[in-house]
Amino acid sequence: MSLKNWFIKQQIRRQKDYLKSLSISDLRNEMEFAFGSLEMPKTAIVSELKIHEHIHGRWIKDDLSTKESIILYFHGGGFCQGSSKSYQRCGYDVVSVTGVPMLIPDYRLAPEHPFPAGIYDCVKSYDYLLELGYPEHKIAFVADSAGASLALSTLSILRKRNALLPAALVLLSPCVTVEMYDDTNIYHDLEKKDIILSEKILRTCSAAYLNGHDPKDPLVSPIYANLKKFPPMFISIGTDDMLIDTARYFYTRALDFGVEANFYVNEGCMHAHHLLGLYVPEAEKTISKAAIFLRRNLGLSLKYDHHKIDPIHFEGK
Hints:
Low-confidence stretches: 312-317
Strand order of the largest sheet: 1-2-4-3-5-6-7-8
CATH topology: Rossmann fold
Largest sheet: 8 strands, mixed
Number of helices: 10
Strand content: 15-25%
Number of strands: 8
Radius of gyration: 18 Å
Number of domains: 1
Distance between the termini: 21 Å
CATH class: Alpha Beta
Mean pLDDT: 92
């Protein structure tokens, strides 16, 4: 584990009990304050747009971004928080390393809009890119945490309507099930290592998203989905992430369905460690590996120009 990774984990660990005490509304505000106010690099080009009726989002690119391909990024936040604004800095870290521009849609959030509203918005966002003229083999999905569940469910719906699927899928610290077990001992050891997630937060967000729906529905919990003919996947997760066991099981299911899948485990890393961007070596390595995977599957050269941006600095925060 790098010193920078250790340092940030100690800072965040001090806030865990505080975060566990917050309501969904307060968690939203904390996330927007923490990430939405991060300064964007001067090379970043960000613009807001309307995707479809109530669905807005952000384009993120720079002057070196390819015009051939596009990343559709489904942000995390437990189905209840997060936005294109709070993810624009993290999104640009990915854009700057991959050389591929990005669209981040603001899908509707629970509890105001429980399942299946978010999935509907994600499908509409993919349709929007097709309408703009992007061919499916030049579109890649990137998603983290709860956004991974939405990305996988989007693929299930697209396949059901016989639509052409995107070229690749990157899942970062993926949430692949919202099913919660009655036995709290299952979560005890995992929660001790994870400095962000907790059983309480998982139960709160799961209940808000489900709104009484069956958690075993494959569209709600993609760990139960039929993954046949899904695009190649790159799955990344840290050893200190509460979701590591379900992510690993999902990876084995993908292989069983004949999906080309890669599983990358980062030692000592917390949930959604890629959000630390280019400041932490482990996060930078995850993003770099995902970039190679994306460019290969989008048919792009691995020799390309991209901006070397300054990392986020967390000291004193």
